Amino acid sequence: MKLHELKQAYNEVARNMRNLHDNIGDTTWTDEQRSQWSEMKQKLDGFDAQIKREEELRDADQRFVEEHEEEHREGQEREERGGESIDEQRAQAFDAFLRQGMQEISAEQRQVLREMRAQGTSPDEKGGYTVPTEMLNMIYESMKDYGGLASVAQILNTENGQPIEWPTSDGTAEEGELLGENTAATEGDVAFGMENLGAKKLSSKVIRVSNELLNDSGINIQAFLAGRIGQRLGRGEARYLVQGTGAGTPEQPSGLETSVTATTTAASSSEFTWQEVNALIHSIDPAYRRAANFRLGLNDNTLKMMTEMEDLQGRPLWLPAVSGAAPATILNVPYFIDQGIADIGVNNKFMYGGDFNQFVIRRVRYMVLKRLVERYAEFDQTGFLAFHRFDCVLQDAAAIKALQGAAT
User: What is the pLDDT of residues 267-312, one digit of tens each?
Assistant: First the structure.
């Protein structure tokens, strides 16, 4: 089957599963209905696996086409016009810097790189140069694959890493008052906290590339490095956004695990019930539950347990997504998967619920890439090292709560 046919088949099975769930309603499920559901879920998992394989193959084919199409297009464009745009000049100069270093490129290209570095907030980074916008976008695109929290949180992009004093508050206990005629209003001060939204520095670690690969003009070295940098920074950022302690040397961000203090505790440290998940959902103020970004957050192991749960009538609690119609849900609540969230365990916060737009992720767009030549000369390799700066803050403590395992 072709990819679009696989997706249509997946949606058809998902739609049938939802119809079965809705048609049975509140009545108790029979063994035949459970068996029918299990068969459809097995088919759904099979289509899902096929779709992922086909998409991986298609992505690989697309990358191959784009790499070679760019060379062909560049040749045609040079013939059609007399000059090149500043973005093209920057891209070519940066590509030359990656392959050859500063000493071997032309004076014009060195000037373009110096102008790029001068535009950054840290122009004195010796041996490093600002990553061009095109490559930066490729890095951010690669980072999207890691950590579901960033897909639902509020993203704040800044051009520099200067600290920001960020107000925090819990207003769920505050309300207006009814006044009689000619009656003065009373005062109700807002209790603000203040968090420092800084710019923690994360490195990609050194990426070693053979000089043979750098000298091969057929290799899109920017795409190669962007993919590796995005993979490493994406995994690192995702882990600290969830598990950051807000302490240590160097100081870690205050991640979701540390920032969320309001919890509902399960009766066990090794398993949980759907009633406890429901208790988590309803422990959150309805105003947050109506928010567009209200979600449950959990890891894939916990999701597997949820997909196998049924309510007292034998109805599955998990419903599959139907493309363009409905998202996948748990107890009718959309969810996201983040592998940084803990498994169920003693005192572990293993599931979160709330309005994740209240969790703010700050990213600094300015990114430096260093080229390390002499360090790996004996291996005939060149090292590359990138730095990414970010931080996070939960601006409303009442907006997100957690379900945690029992203390014993």
Answer: 999 999 999 999 999 999 999 999 999 999 999 999 999 999 998 8
Give the helix, strand, coil percentages of the chain, each rounded to 5: 45, 20, 35
User: Which residues contact residue 267 at a Cβ distance below 8 angstroms, ignoring those fewer than 6 apart?
Assistant: 273, 276, 406
| DSSP one-letter string for 191-241 | -EEEEEE--EEEE---EEEEHHHHH-TTS-HHHHHHHHHHHHHHHHHHHHH
Q: Which CATH class is domain 128-168+192-299+338-408?
A: alpha beta
End-to-end, the C-alpha distance of the chain in Å comes to 50
Is it true that the peptide bond before 316 is cis, omega within 30 degrees of 0?
A: no
> What are the extents of the domains in the chain?
128-168+192-299+338-408
Question: Kind and range of the H or E element at 58?
Answer: helix 31-80
How much is the pTM? 0.76
248 φψ region: left (φ > 0), alpha (ψ -120 to 50), beta (else)? left
Reported as a single tens digit per residue, the pLDDT across 312-323 is 888 899 999 988
